[in-house]
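Regression test case RT-17, inverse folding.

Input:
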């Protein structure tokens, strides 16, 4: 049996579109990654800094999340300084010793350890050789990240 001339293009378009529309779903089904659960190591959750001083308030301004990798030359130290808002650090390499100027209390953190930074307490930091990951959620910074 012969199809009328107008029916042939319509039939062919239906076959072509039908094949085209079903192909992406078949491809999507075969290329989707497998679902898996991840593993989380909770490194730090504190309401006070490493020297025991509680965090008594949080800035009321809009926070800005920031993360920096801090590299300090071997056998050097940062000057005495103050952080006006809570932040945290993680020792990627080496060791880090922080000293609270008022109390003289010191604490050393080693590779793989996280710490809650001091807020409004003057302190200094000394490194034999290291890289530190610093994380902050304080207000947007302008210029220096800490002050003397």
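Golden output:
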């Amino acid at each position: 049996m012969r199809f009328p001339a107008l029916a042939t293009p319509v039939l062919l378009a239906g076959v072509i579109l039908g094949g085209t529309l079903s192909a992406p779903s078949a491809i999507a089904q075969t290329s989707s990654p497998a679902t898996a659960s991840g593993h989380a190591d909770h490194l730090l959750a504190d309401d006070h800094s490493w020297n025991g001083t509680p965090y008594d308030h949080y800035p009321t301004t809009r926070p800005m999340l920031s993360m920096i990798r801090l590299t300090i030359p071997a056998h050097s130290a940062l000057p005495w300084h103050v952080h006006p808002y809570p932040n945290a650090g993680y020792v990627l390499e080496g060791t880090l010793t922080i000293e609270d100027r008022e109390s003289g209390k010191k604490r050393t953190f080693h590779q793989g350890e996280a710490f809650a930074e001091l807020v409004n307490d003057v302190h200094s930091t000394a490194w034999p050789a290291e890289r530190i990951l610093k994380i902050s959620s304080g207000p947007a910074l302008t210029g220096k990240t800490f002050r003397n």
